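Q: Hi! First time doing this. I have a protein sequence and I read that you can turn it into a structure. Is that right? Here it is:
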Amino acid sequence: MLKQKLRLFATGVGLLVIAFTAERVFFFIKYYQYFEGLDFSSVARAFASGVRYDLSVAGMFTCPFTLLFFIPGFSARRGLVRAALFTLLAVQSALLIYNFIDIEYYAFVNRHITFEFANTWGDADMILVIGFHKYIPEIAGFFLFLAIYCLVF
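A: Yes, that's right. Below is the predicted 3D structure, encoded as C-alpha cells:
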C-alpha cells in the first residue's frame, strides 16, 4: 500500500518535471540567440539546475494531494480520489500555463514575470487580446501540449 502511494507521488512529480523540461527546451529553442555563445557544458549545467528546481516545485505542489491518500478510508471513496486527482491536474495545468505565459512574456522585456505579474494584472485583458492575436501558432501548440499532458495524466 505504501509503495502504491509513493508511486502515485513519484508519477505526479515525474510527469510535471517532464512537462517543465519540455517547456524549458521550448524556451531554449525560441530564444536560442541569447544562448549561442554558451558551450554545451554550461547549457547542460543550467538544464540540470532547472530540473532540480522543477523537482522541488513539482514535489511541493504534488505532496499535499498525495498526503490525502494517507487519510484512513480516503482511497476507498472513489469520488474523493477523483476530486483530488482532478484538482491536482488543475493545479499542475495552472503551473504549466503560467510557465508558458512567462516564456512568451520574455520576448517583451528579456526577463521572467516574477513580481511583475502583480503589476500587470490590471492590463491582463489587453495582454491576452494581444497575445491571442500575435501568438496563434504558439498558443495552438501549447493547447495541444496541455491536452496531451492531461491525457497522459
